[in-house]
Amino acid sequence: MTANRIRVLVVDDHAVVREGYRRLLEKQSDIEVVAEAGEAASAYLQFRATTPDVVIMDISMPGRGGIDAIRQIRQADPDARILVFSMHATVSYAVQAIRAGARGYITKSSASDLMVDAVRNVFRNKLTLCAEISEALATSRLEGHEPSLDELSPREFEVLRMIIDAKSTEEIAAAFNLTPKTVANYHYAIKSKLGVSSDIDLVYFCMRHGMVTPLDAPIA
Questions:
Q1: What's the pTM value of the predicted model, to 2 decimals?
Q2: What are the structural domains, with CATH classification, of the chain?
Q3: Category of 129 on φ-ψ map: left (φ > 0), alpha (ψ -120 to 50) or beta
C-alpha cells in the first residue's frame, strides 16, 4: 500500500461501469484505483503487474468469467483479497465466488457507500456480504433437498454458466484452454451432480436457482 491508501484493481467488462467505480472510490482519501481490466485474462495480467491490495471483480464477463478469474488470481497469490460486485443476487453465485477465494460479495443494487465500506473490510481480510445475500443464504439453508449448485466446483460452475449462455463445446474449450472431450466430461459431471438427464432439464434447474431469467420476466 502506498501512502496509507488502499490500492484497487477494478474488473468489469463495461467501461462506463469501471469509470463509475473509479469516481466513487477516488473520492475517498484512503483509496486509489491503480488499474482496470475488462475481462478475466487481462484481470490476471493487471493483478500481476500492479499487485493491488483489493480486486473488485464482476462475475458476468465474456469468455472466462469472474469466478474463474478469482480462482486464477488466488492460485497466483493465496493472500489476494477479492470483492465481488455483481448483478446476481442469487446464493449460487455468492457461494461459488467465496469458494473460489473471494472475501466479499455485494450486489450492484447495494448503496454506493456499502461498496466503499466493503473495500475497506475486504482489505482488512473480513468476510463481507451485503444484507441481500446474507438473507438469501440463510433462507436457502431452510429450503428443500433438491441438489444444489453448491455441489459444483468453481470450474464446473463457470462451464455451466457458458453452457446456459448457449456457448458451444468448442467455444468453451477455447475459453478455458481445454479439449472438447474435457468440456464434454465437465458437461456430463455437471448434469450428474445436479441430478438432471438432459440439457433442457439443466436449463429448468438453472431457472429455479436464479441463473436463467425467463423471457417474460421483468428485468430490473
A1: 0.69
A2: 6-140 (3.40.50.2300), 149-208 (1.10.10.10)
A3: beta
